[in-house]
Amino acid sequence: MLSRITNIGKIVTWSPSEKKLVSLENQEILIEDGLIAEIGEKVGSAEVEFDAECALITPGFVDSHTHPIFFGNRGSEFGMRVAGKSYEDIAKAGGGIISSINGVRNATEDELYGFCKNHIDYFLDHGTTTIEAKSGYGLTLEDELKSLRVIKRLNENSELDIVPTFMGAHDFPVEFKRDPDLYIDIICDEMIPAVTSEKLAEYCDVFCENGYFTTDQSLRILETAKKFGLKPRLHADEFKDSGAASLAAKVDAVSADHLMAVSDSGINALAKSGVIATLLPGTTFFLGKNTYADGRKMIDVGCDVAIATDFNPGSCTLQSMPMVISLATLYCGLSMEEAFVGATFNGAKSINRENEIGAIQTGYKADMLFWDIESIDEIPYWLGSDRLLSVMKNGELIEED
Ligand SMILES: [Zn+2]
User: Fold this and answer.
1) What percent of the chain has pLDDT over 70?
2) Average pLDDT, the chain
3) Residue 20: its pLDDT value, please?
4) Considering the entire predicted model, what is its pTM?
5) How far, in Å, from the CA of 170 to the mean position of ligand 1?
6) R_g over Cα of the chain
7) What average pLDDT does the segment 301-320 reach?
């Protein structure tokens, strides 16, 4: 089926061929079977017409780092935190991630699916058309498989595209705290083979950090994952520099994420090896800290920087990419253009989909946002209240519920 968008105010997108951000006026877009077939002053005729009413059009956002598979919420912990307890304090007291792990373990697959389905519409409401989604609150073979099966069902039953990541190495389950290497054996010998034989994930992620998974343990997990065809990505140097960014370069990870405490040598390793540096400023904000990642330095030494929400029930409940753009420009040293590219094209790159999403380009998916704004500067400017008119996914406007 052919459809055509006319009366477009402006198209703002990264241009993969020109390698720069472009702003196009007096253009129409022709869409065929969900893909952009033509962009030009006058495109061919179509069966369906969309009048953009002078809206500014951008690509849909790509949120390349989320943890949306959990059951129940931790709102009460927020109260504890604002009363003075740190995230680390709450974790030590037996709260934090453990309550999310128990939630996933005690829920049936259908219950987990029903709960997680609620989050999906919020991503779309804020203009996100693709997310990467991690397992990692099950931490047993069965509960990790259950989480990944839920991701698969969510992807099949919603308009949002969801790219699955296995993250059995999110934390050590309490039952293995005394023998962490035994848990690494289970990840490598049981979980990774089962996940890949059911084709439930595309990536493998590890929380590589002092007090969590060491660089040696992370290396073993990611090398095993690669043998089974999973591509590596890493939670790296969030609280302290533990050499995780350099490890990301060593294992050829597609992305190293967080990087609030990364060393200069770690940044150089990322730049040299082409690992995407993914910044998650919502987490720093939600934790009430001021240790934002230095995106300016990363870009200046040549890193490709993506930005994402890190949506999860403990350290960041943010699902809005416009808000992430606000935070990245205010606190990570990114220019407006760099943050916009980080939320679209570089996000797509970090999930190896830069040839199909993240830009408005012939041959790409017709995932587009229609805005009531004059320039992209207004995306972060209208703080927390997006001037988003409509969201188009695969060439069709998403109906509001
Ligand atoms: Zn994360």
Assistant:
1) 99
2) 95
3) 97
4) 0.96
5) 8
6) 21
7) 96
- Of 3.20.20.140, 3.30.110.70, 2.50.20.10, 3.20.20.60, the CATH number of 61-349 is 3.20.20.140
Nearest to 100 by CA among 132, 133, 135: 135
For residue 303, is pLDDT > 80? Answer: yes
For residue 165 the two structure tokens come to 């990541």
Q: Are strands 396-397 and 388-393 parallel, antiparallel or unpaired?
A: antiparallel
What is the distance in A from the centroid of ligand 1 to the CA of 235? 6
Residues of each domain in the chain carrying CATH 2.30.40.10: 2-59+358-397
Closest residue by Cα to residue 214 from 253, 247, 256: 247
All CATH 3.20.20.140 domain ranges in the chain, comma separated: 61-349
Q: How far is the CA of 284 from the centre of ligand 1 (A)?
A: 12
Please tell me the CATH code under which domain 2-59+358-397 is placed. Answer: 2.30.40.10
All residues at 6 or more sequence positions from 286 whose CB lies less than 8 Å from its CB, including other chains: 315, 316, 317, 318
Residue 54 Cα to ligand 1 middle (Å): 38
CA of residue 123 to ligand 1 center, whole Å: 16
